């Protein structure tokens, strides 16, 4: 997943330089299809209800630090 996040980051920055405002990635493009409910569990990250908690994962990455991968935190920083 970290390698895919690196690729996503490169693609986001390249698209941004070309004026892109929205970038869409494929379903399961980050983690692939090799997981089942049990094996994906260690990679799941909490995402709090935005109506209850005001949290920016890029600015406050340790508040809901869910996994080693940190996909929510990293991908949030791409858009700032």
Structural overview:
The protein contains three helices and no strands. With 80 residues, it is mainly α. It has one domain.
List the helices and strands and how they pair.
Blueprint: H1 2-17, H2 37-40, H3 71-78
Q: Give the percentage of residues in beta strands.
A: under 5%
Structural class: mainly alpha
Question: Order of helices and strands, N to C?
Answer: HHH
Low-confidence stretches: none
Residues in helix, %: 25-40%
| Total number of helices | 3
Computed Rg:
14 Å
The profile of the biggest β sheet is: none
- Summed over residues and divided by their number, the pLDDT gives a mean of 82
Shape assignment: globular
Organism: Chiloscyllium punctatum
Protein name: CN hydrolase domain-containing protein
Short description:
This is CN hydrolase domain-containing protein. This protein has three helices and no strands.
Name its key features.
80 residues, mainly alpha, 3 helices, 35% helix, 0% strand
